[in-house]
Amino acid sequence: MDLGLKGKWALVCGASKGLGLGCAQALGREGVHVVIVARGAEALETAAAALRAEVPQGTQVQAIATDITTEEGRAKVFAFRKDYDIVVTNAGGPPPGDFRDWDRAAWVKALDANMLTPIELIKATVDGMAARGFGRIINITSGAVKAPIDILGLSNGARSGLTGFVAGVARQSKLAGSNVTINNMLPGAFDTDRLKGNFETMSKKSGKSIEEVRQARAKAVPALRFGTSEEFGAICAFVCSQHAGYITGQNLLIDGGAYPGTY
């Protein structure tokens, strides 16, 4: 299937590894010029080099090492290019723990990364997308938005705030009527560094080994495995495609069937 994305420009955040990199790879293979952003310069350059080796000839890959959660970081990204056709917002989740231990600073940091930064990126790009008649924004949030995880309270709260914001703005006729869509992708258990970190926390809390925690977590998924960044990226690319213009304001749960509800 031709996704109709060749020649578009995409900004992909948190793209040095994991789900962000998976999205950048899938878009790049479709001939999308990709600007990848992450804080770690070395890991980002490694990812960019690998990506350049697999995208079609003529497809550009630009790596910008910066903290997108800061005004300075966003200014650096938009100094390179003002207009993007696709924006994938993605920030590392805040640390797990007990809500009793989190002070105001911890909450503000979580909100900055997982709610306010995506909103700033949306604000900076959607009107240009609408004027050009095409735009796709994907927010990588978490399956915890649907089924909260007790040790991820900072993430539960911040990402739920973003979800509420998107539910309203995505349905503005100025945007949806101009072929601009905004959707959230909610990953469940994917084989990433983030998941490994959660296993370590759960291991300490339960007294079980990390391997025991890992095996139990995998068995709890009906698919009996963890997701891969490659399959997540493929879904992202489709939702960004010309074929997905009638999908907006949605929370796309990608969790191997783990969420038990009907709705």
TrEMBL record:
Domain of life: Bacteria
Listed Pfam families: adh_short_C2
Family: Belongs to the short-chain dehydrogenases/reductases (SDR) family.
Identification of the protein by name: SDR family oxidoreductase
